[in-house]
Amino acid sequence: MARLTMWRGSSCILSLLVVMCVGASAARPAPAESLAAANGTCRSRVEPFGYGCEEHTVTTQDGYILSLQRIASGRGGESATGGGGKVPVLLQHGLMMDGMTWLMNSPNESLGYILADNGYDVWIANTRGTVYSLGHTSLSSSDPAYWNWSWDELASNDLSAMLQYAYDQSGQQKVHYVGHSLGTLIALAALSDQQQHVSMLRSAGLLSPIAFLNKVSSPLALAAADVFLAEALYWLGIDEFDPTGTAVHGLLTDICKLPGVNCYDLMSSFTGDNCCLDNSSVQTFLAHEPQASSTKNMVHLAQMIRRGIIAKYDYGDASDNIKYYGQATPPVYNVSAIPDDFPLFLSSGGRDSLSDVQDVRRLEQALKSHDSDTLTVQYLADYAHADFVLAGNAKERVYGPLMAFFRLQDK
């Protein structure tokens, strides 16, 4: 009964939290109704701008069928199909996003297009649960078991499968990796826990890095963690966290109509005060996002906020943890175990309320033994969480320095 009372008291927090994650998702159609869902990312978003684009799938070791898009050539450029000598780059989106993250703005402003125009073989990842990665060899996405995963599996299974595939398809050339938000966390976890990834990677660019989360300054993210919101949903049997579901969508519509409620401003208050978004990029965002995640994944992130460590999912009971891990507490990811000579590019913002300045500094401290010529740290005082993928000036401020970093590793 106490848990049910907690759930009732937390329902409004859930609603507001989802609004801020998506920036007024109630004002836009669900992804399944969008043009992209009807035609695919290549046809709807890449080919119209004159780029060569291929749709690929890869199956993880636990049966999830994931989609990848390959931008095989820049505008009018030579195709990378069959290797082509081009250096591959794998782009990994964050929480409640998909591969469209990298294509939201114009070709002159979006990282996916910019990399292709600069001669890279671009691979765009879509993790399990997103609109194009709902397949499974034996499960339907309507089965509760389909959603039995957290970011542990994104690091150990999804990233492994997509990286191996891009590596093989590119003629076994080492791959640059770029992650945003949760995409940085799964890279850090994979690199610290599975050293075989290093042999296939040239470098990793981490934009708005998420590692330690106990200094998150977003009041709603903190409130949700403090009241065990995700755990309440999990206890109620809500395995899929779908912000565009009928019930939540209707509730958000009502909330956005309340006097004084500006859902766009709520997005900013959740992610931080983004400096450089324009209406066009926000509208493109609203036409395609947010994507579903698992409730278990949300529980895992809440555990990180409350505990201040990077560890595997805690099953909440010593006997269950022993069953899965052979020990009473979940194993900790040790980012200091990432090889000191592995090239890393970290770019963070001073207004980011999810990748907080103090948490990023703690990550940098954990990497302090890294070779000085292989660790590049960029700090943008006026940037917040969404600026790194949606800002109109990100090409000059983030992507240019990132590609300069890549060129050093390409020599």
UniProtKB/TrEMBL annotation:
Keywords: Hydrolase, Lipid degradation, Lipid metabolism, Signal. The keyword Cell cycle does not apply. The keyword Transmembrane does not apply. It comes from the Eukaryota. Pfam families: Abhydro_lipase. GO terms for molecular function: lipase activity. Residues 46-105 form the Partial AB-hydrolase lipase domain. The active site is at residues 181, 352, 385. Belongs to the AB hydrolase superfamily. Lipase family. PANTHER family: LYSOSOMAL ACID LIPASE-RELATED. This is Lipase. It comes from Triticum aestivum (Wheat).
